[in-house]
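Invent a record, attention on tokens:
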Amino acid sequence: MMKGAPVSWFYDTPDWVTLPAFVVLFVGGSVAIVIVLRPSVRRSVLDPAQWDRVLGYTSSTFGVFFGILLALVAVTVYGNYSDAHSAGLEETSQIGALYRGANALPAGLRDEVHESLRDYVRTVIHQDWPQQADGQVAVASTAKVDAIESRIYSFNPETLGQQAVYMRLLATFDGFVEARRARIDATTLQLPPLFWVVIWIGALINAILIAFIDVKAFRLHVMMAALLALFVGLVIFLTADMDHPYAGSIAVGPGDFERILQVIDR
């Protein structure tokens, strides 16, 4: 799921709207399947014992594989979210190290590097992050990285001590660039569309199998279908909300960059 796709409204709409709507539609669909299929099932069951035995085997086998799929998807999505957060944290750590490392540069050049880093962080917060939330590869801060690089590379160390400090500064800059690339690459992290196709087909099969249960009490049958659909729907909703690390209510925000900017400003 990505912003800019037909489901972009999903990330633009608050959870207090999308979550109840999703649950109502999901549960309502499952209950509707029970209501539609229940009469046919009641007429088709000639041997309840045999029917329950076959249905129990089928349901248990399906439940194992569908549960494994949902677990795999949830772990993958959370892993993507965690990677995106770790990339931002690593980038701010490298920015802090660059800021401190620049203190060893001559006064004029030091101030220029400091100001370039401050400008870069502001650009990430106010321009990169909105682009990432829209599912776009952030490019606004690219020019700021070039400015930092040009200032660092303009330094010409004259002593062995300066050379040692300069080499550490260059290594820190390389680490900063790598962390920035990881943060930007996380924008494209998402589940392959085929996974969502299989998930929705699995949810449909699950609702149909519940409707196949031969339950004499209609209210009890509907309640079983509704409760199971509620749980499966919540799992799918949570997975979809985390599928794009920088969008939705469960998203990686620019908090790490805002905190490093406060440190720099002090």
